[in-house]
UniProtKB/TrEMBL annotation:
SUPFAM superfamilies according to UniProt: MetI-like
Top-level lineage group: Bacteria
Protein known as: ABC transporter permease
InterPro entries: MetI-like (IPR000515), MetI-like_sf (IPR035906)
Topology with respect to the bilayer: Multi-pass membrane protein
Boundaries of every ABC transmembrane type-1 domain copy: 61-241
Lineage: Bacteria, Bacillati, Actinomycetota, Actinomycetes, Micromonosporales
Subcellular location(s) of the protein: Cell membrane
Family under the similarity heading: Belongs to the binding-protein-dependent transport system permease family.
Amino acid sequence: MARRERLTVVAIQLGLAAVVLAVWVYQTRAGRVSPILLPQPERVLDEFPDLVRDPVFWGSLRTTALELAGAFAVAAVAGLLVGVVVGRWAPAARVATPLLAWAQTVPIILFYPICILLFGIGPMSKVAFGGFYGFFPIAANTVLALSTVPPRYLTAAAALGASRRQTVTRVLIPAARPLILSGVRLGAALCLIGVLAGELLGSTEGLGYQIASSSGSFRTPELYAYIFVALVLVAIFNLAITRADDRNAQV
């Protein structure tokens, strides 16, 4: 039954993608949308062979991937550390939860100029800004997940003589894993948003810079091709996180 449900979900997703593609083809070929705003799909596809042969593309992809990896490492380590420390203490969790929720409503882009002042226009400012952007959902979900673990789990662990480290690694984290993973996935997506936003606003390399350059010179098919590459990058990153969590769950 589970396999049939997964196949049904995949079929629905593919159907929705086909509908979007069909509408895209119809609107562009019927001339209802300016090609400057939305080029025909085949024109976007024609850009990929040129991108693959262009060393600038590979350099930009490598730069963004490294910045994303660095930003995610900062966000994950800081978010999980803060979440575990705060989430295990109920009074701190009650204070931190609304603050972390409020922080996610603040336009984080306002802090990017500070990152530029601290780290310059190079990759470090993108790593710092992306990590700062992705930190809050990871920390918030970790605090919420740990603070909602049933107390009987902790009571049972104490009765069995579990140490503090064993309680965290073998009781709290496994019980809170689904909600923590949800925050990690969201944090990964926000890390990429932060990195790309930083490259769009002030950079000389990376996918974000190439997107801004394509947009500024009205190379719309190339613009959509770079956007698609960025979407694939975050999908691969999210898949890697899911696979890593699945392997840990089986251990």
